[in-house]
Amino acid sequence: MIKVQNLSRRFGEFLAVAPTDLHIHKQKTTVIMGGSGSGKTTLLRLLSGLEQASTGHIWFDNDSDLTCMAARHLYALRLRMGMVFQYSALLNSLNVYENVSFPLHEHTNLDESLIRTMVTMKLEQVGMRGFEHLMPSELSGGMAKRVAFARALITDPELVFFDEPTSGLDPIAAAVVTRLIQQLTVKTKMTSVVVTHDVAAGLAIADWVILLWQGRVIAEGTAEHIANSSDARVQQFIQGKPDGPIPFSRSDTPYLETLMQVDSHG
Amino acid sequence: MVNLLIEVLGKLGRSTLLTLQRMGDANILGFSAMAMLVQPPWQGRHIVQQVYALGVGSLVIIAITGAFTGMVLALQGYYMLAKFGSESLLGSAIALSIIRELGPVLGAFMMIGRAGSSITAEIGIMRVTEQLDALQMMAVNPKARIIMPRIIATVIALPLLIALFDVVGLAAGYVIGVDLLGVNSGAFIAEMVTKVRMEDLNIGWIKTIVFGLLIGIICTWYGYRAEPTTEGVARATTQAVVLSSVSVLIFDYILTSFFL
Ligand SMILES: Nc1ncnc2c1ncn2[C@@H]1O[C@H](COP(=O)(O)OP(=O)(O)OP(=O)(O)O)[C@@H](O)[C@H]1O
Ligand SMILES: [Mg+2]
Q: How high is the ipTM of this complex?
């Protein structure tokens, strides 16, 4: 579905995503994992055209290049996409019902009664039925996330990007949401790209796993392949060990040196 | 010494280039957004909503400013005209000042403070909270949906508000001039009617439309390009208010000298 060639993104001097080649396969679940700041959100934003690539190409269905597409075509393509943002990004001035029904009101001429039914069904799936009249400011983080989930899925898009769909959710809600992604991928032939920190859930639903570290892909393959990888970095990440080849601190200067500098300045 | 000169010139050049680049960017954003007025989907409902929010919200403050401007002009005008024994000219003096200059400029200032700042802050917050990105992902172009209705709404609302400012200002000037200071009512009205020509009215409304456009483009641009932090939005709001006020004054001078 998506073929990425030599894609990279710089913020000034900082290389957030190093030149990368990727495939996102149709009707499969691709899980992207990696530590904080490893470039997962940036990668999703590049794939959805929200962020401008510094180099490289993103081929959509093998024929159109997202990195140099006219705005009109990009918007047409986005009718087929959905996205759950890491921090929900609900429209503040609209209540839950209006948020979830927003894409339908914008792009279809469906009857209000039909829209109401569809919204109710989606909210029920994420356990948010009965909260239609609340404003985003009245929701908890986890509730907002689930509303964002319903909103992204209301048009049954072919391709959905999930940026940490389960972070901030309680274990039950997280399990429900994870199962929903899995079911939709099978039943509605949805293609999903899931960014997550939840290693167990990620490996469980993944058809393909991509492991990022400091903007680079350090491993990719099926869940089984990743779980049995002999790469020490991969093992450290999926087992969540505090010590190993991946340093916890990301600073380039040694700790002691920074402390000494503080000392000499003080 | 030479190095210092080069450094100063370099800085000057860089900041000039940056300013020009920003002006260009603001114009491109503003005019490309306005072009979406004629492209489907039709945003009529959102334009009306914005005219209501920006215009009706500013009614009271515009009426109050208009009233006090008219009143102070009557007092000040009477004081000066009395020295030449030509109090009867008070009506035309008030009318010309309000219609040609004070109405458009003070009305625009009120609109900037009341509506312009809220436009910048609102769009800036939508940027910080990724609502603009969410709109894009839902295949809704924020330029067409958020920017364009606000620019069009300021262009529609400002002339209407300033018409109200003028009427209230003239009425208040009449009350002070005639009822309080004792200028002859017939002379007040007759002078006003004969001295104010159609040209003066034309200058007035052309100014209001230009000011509306300036405020709309500047305030939406600052919000749209705000640095996505709390501080960034605060700074963008202040800068939008300052820059639109200054540009209103500059364009006021240009338009006045052009039509004189
Ligand atoms: N707009 C930006 N300007 C400058 N640097 C940025 C910007 N966006 C992201 N970065 C940098 O890019 C790197 C990757 O950020 P990104 O948000 O993609 O991380 P992430 O993998 O999603 O992390 P997390 O798991 O914490 O959400 C970070 O080091 C961040 O500092
Ligand atoms: Mg992230």
A: 0.87
